[in-house]
Amino acid sequence: MKLNQVRISKQTVNRSIEEFIDNNYSDSIIENVTILDEFNDITFDSCIFNNINFNSTKLCSVSMIDVIFNNCDLSNQTFDKEMLTRIKFNNCKLIGTSFIESSLNDLIFENSNLKYTNFSGAKINHFSAKECDFSDSSFIQPEIKNIEFDDINFSGCEFVQSNLKDVDFSTCNINGCSFDTYSLKGIQVDSFQCANLVSILGVRVK
Protein backbone atom coordinates (compact mmCIF):
# COMPACT_ATOMS: atom_id res chain seq x y z
CA MET A 1 0.00 0.00 0.00
CA LYS A 2 1.29 3.45 -0.86
CA LEU A 3 -0.27 6.51 0.70
CA ASN A 4 -0.70 9.69 -1.27
CA GLN A 5 1.69 12.39 -0.12
CA VAL A 6 0.34 15.30 1.87
CA ARG A 7 0.34 18.18 -0.59
CA ILE A 8 1.29 21.30 1.29
CA SER A 9 1.35 24.35 -0.97
CA LYS A 10 4.72 25.82 -1.90
CA GLN A 11 3.26 29.20 -0.98
CA THR A 12 2.74 28.16 2.64
CA VAL A 13 3.79 31.00 4.94
CA ASN A 14 4.16 31.47 8.66
CA ARG A 15 1.26 33.54 9.99
CA SER A 16 0.53 35.01 13.38
CA ILE A 17 -2.32 33.44 15.32
CA GLU A 18 -4.33 36.67 14.92
CA GLU A 19 -4.15 36.41 11.14
CA PHE A 20 -5.01 32.75 11.28
CA ILE A 21 -8.13 33.25 13.34
CA ASP A 22 -9.18 36.08 11.05
CA ASN A 23 -10.52 33.67 8.41
CA ASN A 24 -7.13 32.60 7.05
CA TYR A 25 -7.25 28.84 7.11
CA SER A 26 -5.11 27.84 4.12
CA ASP A 27 -1.43 27.90 3.16
CA SER A 28 -0.36 28.62 6.73
CA ILE A 29 2.18 27.45 9.27
CA ILE A 30 0.97 27.84 12.86
CA GLU A 31 3.41 27.05 15.65
CA ASN A 32 4.27 27.33 19.33
CA VAL A 33 0.95 28.74 20.57
CA THR A 34 -2.07 27.68 22.59
CA ILE A 35 -5.21 28.48 20.63
CA LEU A 36 -7.98 29.87 22.81
CA ASP A 37 -10.83 29.88 20.37
CA GLU A 38 -13.65 27.87 18.84
CA PHE A 39 -13.61 26.92 15.17
CA ASN A 40 -16.98 26.27 13.52
CA ASP A 41 -17.79 24.97 10.05
CA ILE A 42 -14.40 25.59 8.42
CA THR A 43 -11.85 23.77 6.31
CA PHE A 44 -8.12 23.68 7.01
CA ASP A 45 -6.36 23.39 3.64
CA SER A 46 -2.58 23.06 3.24
CA CYS A 47 -1.71 23.94 6.84
CA ILE A 48 1.12 22.86 9.13
CA PHE A 49 0.63 22.91 12.90
CA ASN A 50 3.83 22.75 14.97
CA ASN A 51 3.78 22.40 18.78
CA ILE A 52 0.12 23.38 19.17
CA ASN A 53 -1.95 22.59 22.24
CA PHE A 54 -5.63 22.31 21.25
CA ASN A 55 -6.85 21.49 24.77
CA SER A 56 -8.45 24.93 25.15
CA THR A 57 -9.90 24.82 21.64
CA LYS A 58 -13.17 23.40 20.42
CA LEU A 59 -13.18 22.18 16.82
CA CYS A 60 -16.74 22.02 15.49
CA SER A 61 -17.62 20.84 11.97
CA VAL A 62 -14.01 21.04 10.84
CA SER A 63 -12.81 19.32 7.68
CA MET A 64 -9.16 19.02 6.72
CA ILE A 65 -7.16 18.42 3.57
CA ASP A 66 -3.36 18.37 3.22
CA VAL A 67 -2.61 19.09 6.88
CA ILE A 68 0.40 18.12 9.00
CA PHE A 69 0.37 18.06 12.81
CA ASN A 70 3.79 17.94 14.48
CA ASN A 71 4.03 17.59 18.27
CA CYS A 72 0.41 18.65 18.79
CA ASP A 73 -2.16 17.74 21.42
CA LEU A 74 -5.63 17.04 19.99
CA SER A 75 -6.86 14.93 22.88
CA ASN A 76 -10.64 14.66 23.33
CA GLN A 77 -11.38 16.50 20.09
CA THR A 78 -14.41 15.33 18.12
CA PHE A 79 -14.17 14.74 14.36
CA ASP A 80 -17.39 12.73 14.11
CA LYS A 81 -18.91 12.66 10.60
CA GLU A 82 -16.13 14.92 9.30
CA MET A 83 -13.89 14.47 6.24
CA LEU A 84 -10.13 14.27 6.72
CA THR A 85 -7.97 13.81 3.63
CA ARG A 86 -4.18 13.49 3.38
CA ILE A 87 -3.42 14.19 7.04
CA LYS A 88 -0.24 13.34 8.94
CA PHE A 89 0.04 13.21 12.73
CA ASN A 90 3.65 13.06 13.92
CA ASN A 91 4.44 12.69 17.62
CA CYS A 92 0.94 13.83 18.60
CA LYS A 93 -1.49 13.14 21.45
CA LEU A 94 -4.99 12.12 20.40
CA ILE A 95 -6.13 10.54 23.66
CA GLY A 96 -9.90 10.07 23.65
CA THR A 97 -10.28 11.67 20.22
CA SER A 98 -13.42 10.62 18.34
CA PHE A 99 -13.67 9.81 14.63
CA ILE A 100 -17.13 8.21 14.71
CA GLU A 101 -18.68 7.87 11.22
CA SER A 102 -15.97 10.11 9.78
CA SER A 103 -14.44 9.79 6.31
CA LEU A 104 -10.69 9.20 6.65
CA ASN A 105 -8.60 9.11 3.48
CA ASP A 106 -4.80 8.89 3.36
CA LEU A 107 -4.06 9.32 7.07
CA ILE A 108 -0.64 8.72 8.61
CA PHE A 109 0.01 8.37 12.35
CA GLU A 110 3.61 8.13 13.56
CA ASN A 111 4.92 7.97 17.15
CA SER A 112 1.55 9.12 18.46
CA ASN A 113 -0.69 8.35 21.43
CA LEU A 114 -4.23 7.33 20.42
CA LYS A 115 -5.45 5.71 23.63
CA TYR A 116 -9.24 5.55 23.92
CA THR A 117 -9.82 6.79 20.36
CA ASN A 118 -13.06 5.80 18.67
CA PHE A 119 -13.20 4.91 14.96
CA SER A 120 -16.62 3.27 15.09
CA GLY A 121 -18.53 3.50 11.84
CA ALA A 122 -15.72 5.40 10.13
CA LYS A 123 -14.94 5.00 6.43
CA ILE A 124 -11.19 4.36 6.42
CA ASN A 125 -9.23 4.22 3.17
CA HIS A 126 -5.42 4.26 3.04
CA PHE A 127 -4.54 4.44 6.72
CA SER A 128 -1.03 3.90 8.08
CA ALA A 129 0.05 3.81 11.74
CA LYS A 130 3.60 3.23 12.98
CA GLU A 131 4.95 3.08 16.54
CA CYS A 132 1.68 4.27 18.10
CA ASP A 133 -0.43 3.42 21.14
CA PHE A 134 -4.03 2.44 20.26
CA SER A 135 -4.75 0.77 23.60
CA ASP A 136 -8.40 0.70 24.70
CA SER A 137 -9.54 2.13 21.36
CA SER A 138 -12.62 1.03 19.39
CA PHE A 139 -13.07 -0.06 15.79
CA ILE A 140 -16.75 -1.05 15.69
CA GLN A 141 -18.26 -1.60 12.24
CA PRO A 142 -15.84 0.61 10.32
CA GLU A 143 -15.47 0.35 6.55
CA ILE A 144 -11.79 -0.46 6.07
CA LYS A 145 -9.67 -0.51 2.92
CA ASN A 146 -5.87 -0.43 2.62
CA ILE A 147 -4.70 -0.23 6.21
CA GLU A 148 -1.21 -0.81 7.64
CA PHE A 149 -0.05 -1.25 11.23
CA ASP A 150 3.58 -1.40 12.34
CA ASP A 151 4.65 -1.72 15.99
CA ILE A 152 1.28 -0.74 17.46
CA ASN A 153 0.03 -1.34 21.00
CA PHE A 154 -3.53 -2.68 20.70
CA SER A 155 -3.88 -3.80 24.32
CA GLY A 156 -7.53 -3.51 25.34
CA CYS A 157 -8.56 -2.44 21.83
CA GLU A 158 -11.73 -3.89 20.27
CA PHE A 159 -12.45 -4.80 16.67
CA VAL A 160 -16.08 -5.62 15.89
CA GLN A 161 -17.39 -6.27 12.37
CA SER A 162 -14.12 -4.92 10.95
CA ASN A 163 -12.86 -6.19 7.59
CA LEU A 164 -9.23 -6.91 8.48
CA LYS A 165 -8.47 -9.41 5.73
CA ASP A 166 -4.73 -9.35 4.91
CA VAL A 167 -3.99 -6.76 7.61
CA ASP A 168 -0.63 -7.62 9.20
CA PHE A 169 -0.57 -7.53 13.02
CA SER A 170 2.67 -9.51 13.36
CA THR A 171 4.71 -6.55 14.65
CA CYS A 172 1.97 -5.38 17.03
CA ASN A 173 1.00 -6.09 20.63
CA ILE A 174 -2.46 -7.68 20.54
CA ASN A 175 -2.45 -9.07 24.09
CA GLY A 176 -5.80 -8.25 25.60
CA CYS A 177 -7.15 -7.10 22.25
CA SER A 178 -10.71 -8.15 21.44
CA PHE A 179 -11.78 -9.46 18.02
CA ASP A 180 -15.10 -10.90 16.97
CA THR A 181 -14.97 -13.86 14.59
CA TYR A 182 -15.77 -11.68 11.57
CA SER A 183 -12.83 -9.38 12.28
CA LEU A 184 -10.43 -12.32 12.68
CA LYS A 185 -10.98 -13.61 9.14
CA GLY A 186 -7.82 -13.35 7.07
CA ILE A 187 -5.68 -11.33 9.50
CA GLN A 188 -1.94 -11.97 9.55
CA VAL A 189 -0.19 -12.80 12.84
CA ASP A 190 3.02 -14.51 13.93
CA SER A 191 3.20 -17.88 15.66
CA PHE A 192 3.45 -16.34 19.15
CA GLN A 193 0.18 -14.43 18.67
CA CYS A 194 -1.78 -17.50 17.62
CA ALA A 195 -2.31 -18.80 21.17
CA ASN A 196 -3.91 -15.51 22.18
CA LEU A 197 -6.28 -15.61 19.22
CA VAL A 198 -7.15 -19.25 19.81
CA SER A 199 -8.25 -18.41 23.34
CA ILE A 200 -10.62 -15.77 21.93
CA LEU A 201 -12.40 -18.57 20.05
CA GLY A 202 -12.75 -20.59 23.22
CA VAL A 203 -10.26 -23.25 22.15
CA ARG A 204 -8.03 -24.72 24.85
CA VAL A 205 -4.54 -25.75 23.82
CA LYS A 206 -2.84 -28.48 25.90
Main sheet properties: 8 strands, parallel
| Anisotropy-based shape | elongated
In round numbers, the mean pLDDT is 84
Tell me the CATH topology.
Answer: Pectate Lyase C-like
CATH architecture: 3 Solenoid
Number of strands: 11
As residue ranges, the low-confidence spans are: none
Describe the protein's architecture and organization.
By secondary structure, the chain is mainly beta. The termini are far apart. The longest helix has 10 residues, at 191-200. The chain has three helices and eleven strands, in the order E-H-E-E-E-E-E-E-E-E-E-E-H-H. Strand 1, helix 1 (17-21) and strand 2 form a beta-alpha-beta unit. It has a single domain, classed as Pectate Lyase C-like. It is elongated, with a radius of gyration of 18 Å. The mean pLDDT is 84. The strands form two sheets. Strands 1-2-3-4-5-6-7-9 form an eight-stranded parallel β-sheet, with no helix packed on it. The protein has a three-stranded parallel β-sheet with strand order 8-10-11.
